Amino acid sequence: MWTPASVPGVLPEQTGKPGHTDEIAGRHSDSTRWVIIVFVRVALTSGIGTGPQLPASVTEQAGGRSPLESVVLVGVLTLLTIGAIVVVKRWKLRRIAYSVPVLLALLTCAAGVNSYVGYVRSLDDFGRLLMLASGGNSDTEPTAMQPNLVPGGVRVTDVSLPDPRLGIPTGRTRVLLPPGYDDPGRANERYPVVYLVHGYPSGGPDDWLGPGGAVQTLQALSDARAARPMIVVAVDATAGTGTDWECLNVPGGPQLESYLTTTVPQAIDARFRTLPDRGARAIGGMSGGAFCALNLALRNQNTYSVILASEPYDDPETTLLDGHPDLLRANTPREYLPALPLTRPLSVMLHAGVVAHSDVDLAYRLGDQLAAHGANVAVRTEPGEWHTWRNARIGLPYLLTFAAENFTAGQPQEHH
Question: Exposed, middle or buried by CB within 10 Å (0-12, 13-18, 19+), for 66?
Fold first, then answer.
């Protein structure tokens, strides 16, 4: 049966104790010093938790690397590059032969960057990256549907949700249905929903299935019975272009705030067995998508009850609202959050990589402000991680479990 995340064999929470930090930090690198500072801050911060604990099987799955992310691949390509240079010079080959070590060097650099960022995990991811680099758009170019990991496991289906009235010509949305959704014996069961927004530039709904690892994470949580079953929806915030719209209602442009707070949740509620209640609805994202989640949920408190923000921003960082100062302030949490009343109960989990110092600072600043308003807040930081898709992937099971623990509508059903 489904059980809470606090089960034997879980990883310990991040904790810290004040005192003697200067002496300790002086013996470590800058990165380690930041870990110590973060741990101490967790201990001293009032009203902010560290989020759920998870079984090792779930965290190991999320933190694993695919062959295309492996440092072994970087090492092999490095050796091939050196070997090609030696061969070309020793045999005094024609000048055109020099293109081989150059190409290998470029591939080595690309593999090194990908090992750090974690964006390309499969050939599908690589193909999508090439398409985006050539000017294509992930919204209009469908990719192969991800198969079930196991029979009766997570099922992925595509739904097209255009809304021309709001300036959204296309809207390919990827819906992850939890294990057991198609079981005839559970035909009357309804599920909470987590909506995930991709990052930028040139992001798309496939990002959460590829570099974000959402399918594998949802399956791992189910296998470990670590979180309540839920539907996960990877939304499209591109409005059919590669523009970074920041999920705003842009004057003279697409009305993405309205789209993501009305069109999409209403369509998902109509097509799937959801719990159509704000208390069973969360919105999350990474980087620019985390800004979307934060801004949309705070501005539409009747729609979402849980915010899941990995590597968030608190301002739109865009020129789309130039000439509209009031609208810009109304969409900048940095400006409006200090005086914002919370009209409904709200739970928020913020997530950042420890090495991305500004992300950590912002996560705690937002957490302090939200907790002061009465929100239920958790902040989790990942040692050794930066502002990358790899960090977002590692954090996803914690975010989904936090949502599962804080949904207030419906009750998780037990299954043997």
Answer: middle
Three-state secondary structure call for residue 310: strand
Q: Which amino acid, one-letter code, is at 378?
A: A
User: Are β-strands 306-310 and 281-286 bridged in parallel, bridged antiparallel, or unpaired?
Assistant: parallel
pLDDT band at 87 (very low <50, low <70, confident <90, very high): confident
CB atoms within 10 A of CB 255: 20
User: What is the model's pLDDT at position 80?
Assistant: 74
What are the domain boundaries of the chain? 35-54+143-406, 71-114
- Locate tokens 């998780």: which residue? 412
Please count the other Cβ atoms lying within 10 Å of the Cβ belonging to residue 328: 18
**Whole-angstrom distance, CA of residue 237 vs CA of residue 256:** 7
Instruction: Read off the pLDDT of each residue in 303-321 and give the average, rounded to a whole number.
Output: 94
Q: Say which amino acid occupies 325.
A: P
pTM as predicted: 0.81
pLDDT tens, position by position, 108-123: 786 666 555 666 666 6
DSSP 116-144: HH----SHHHHHHHHHHHTT--TTTS--P
- Whether residue 201 is preceded by a cis peptide bond, meaning omega within 30 degrees of 0, is yes
Q: Would you say residue 293 has pLDDT above 80?
A: yes
What is the mean pLDDT of the segment spanning 20-36?
44
Contact 168, 160 (CB under 8 A): no
Q: How many CA atoms lie within 13 A of 128 on its CB side?
A: 25
Could you read off the pLDDT of 74-84 as tens digits, one per residue? 677 787 778 77
* CATH T-level fold of 35-54+143-406: Rossmann fold (3.40.50)
How many whole angstroms separate alpha carbon 206 and alpha carbon 234? 7
